[in-house]
Every structure is written in structure tokens, then in C-alpha cells.
Amino acid sequence: MTVVTSGSDRRHGDDYSVSEDEIRRFRDDGFVHLRGVLSEDEVRSIEATYDRFLRRDIVVPGKDFCDMAGDYDRPVDQYAIVNVMLPRVYHPQWQGNVYERRAASIARQLCGEGMAIDYDQLLAKRPFKTDAVFHWHQDLAYWPITRDLRTATCWLAIDASTRENGCMRFVPGSHLEPTLRTHRPLLDDRGKSHTLVADVDEAKDRVAWAEIARGDITVHNERVAHGSGGNSTAGWRRAYIVALRARETIALERQRGFTHSHNDTKETLDDVGFMSS
Known about the structure:
Layout: H1 7-10, E1 11-12, E2 15-16, H2 20-29, E3 31-34, H3 40-55, E4 65-67, E5 81-85, H4 87-90, H5 98-111, E6 115-125, E7 134-137, E8 151-157, E9 168-170, E10 183-185, E11 196-198, E12 208-210, E13 217-220, E14 226-228, E15 237-246, H6 247-255, H7 266-271
């Protein structure tokens, strides 16, 4: 029987100890749940800056502040999933925070040396937004293909994440399939919405729901199929994502003009092959 220790026993300054069993699950399933990566005080500190983004006290221009459940033209007060891309770029004071440091420790244990932050993202589902569905997808469908695809995408729960408010869900083992699943633009045009949708048959594919506590994270790789449901509760469901990838991969992406910004031009997306259906 695996004994899961509390987060406080596993946090050591900037480091977080990942067990051998958790490393195995990350490799076999394509994702893993890690408990208590941040303490309550640490989450509260992160939360204060997070909510400044939601209030738009920190300005994020263009499509990097958008609704991932709808089109780019939807009014802000009607957003179902408030999406903030690259908050560490638009608020540099956030760089090097405790979550980033601990995520780097986790990525090193799960993926090996040479990992660095590729991008970060905030995803907040408004209360009573049952349409706040983040559709099934594989992250690699959004990205250029490079030689070193190692990825540790850390997904921090600012609020306890449940089925009712739209927690993460995965298709375990889908990262081991020989090819990516077919993806299509949500609105048939990436100029209207950045979102891609993958072919997942919930009646046939095994789906694992990742209900996690505030301060916990899930970590997933670049190929596992995942998404999340709507929020039927009276509270927000706020998540903070930090994705770490191989330094060589990040350098190649930037050389190609790909930054993970939704403000990237259509020409940039065309160049890496993302605009085709």
C-alpha cells in the first residue's frame, strides 16, 4: 500500500519531494496528482495577485485576455472561462514566485534536467457557468513539433476543484497512442477562437476525474488527452498553470516566432501548421 504523506512533509524550501510511485503514474497515465504543493499561506499570497488579473488591475492586452469557452468578441462580463495568457510577462514581479520554484523542482524529478518555464496561464471559471467547458484536447496539438517534447504542465488549484465546479479530467494512457487524436477548431476558425477540440468518446474512453484540494496540483505531459467541465456552483474555479519544457524546445519555438501568446499573428500560426482544420 502506498502511503501518501502530507504536503508539509514534502515541501522543503523551493523543493517538493515526488515519490517513485508518483513518477511511475506520471509515466504510465500521462498525469499525476500531487498533494499540498503550496501551503495555505502560500496560496493566499498567489491569490492576491491572481485576483488583480481578474479585476483587470493588471492590464493584459489583446487576445491574451479572452474567453476560452467562446469567441474573441464576447463581452468580458459574459466570459465563461476567463483566460489570461503569460501573466509572468505582463506582471514581471510575479516571476520567481514560490509556485514557479516548486514547479521547477517537480519538473526536474518527473522529466529530468534541462527544464525551464515555457509559459504560464490563468484559467478562471465564473460561478454558475455550465458552459465553462474546456474541451478535450492534447496540448501538443497547439504547439510546434520539436525533438525534445518533455513537458510538465503544473495545474494549481486556487479553489478546491470538483466535478461540480469543473475540475480537470484525463484519458489515462492516451499519451501512449502512436499519433495525436484528430483536432478541429472550436468555431471552425482559429481567428474566432483559439480553442481546439479533440476526438474523445466518453462512452468508450476511460475518463479519470481529478478532484483536488486548494494548494494541490496536477501535472500532465504534452500528449495526454484532457479537459474540464462547466461550473454549476456559486463560487469561482480558479487555476494557475505553469508549463515547463526542455530549454532546447523553448529556444526552437521562439526562433519560429511562437510565444504561446494569443496575440501571435495568423502568419506565425500558419508557419507552424496550426491554422488547418
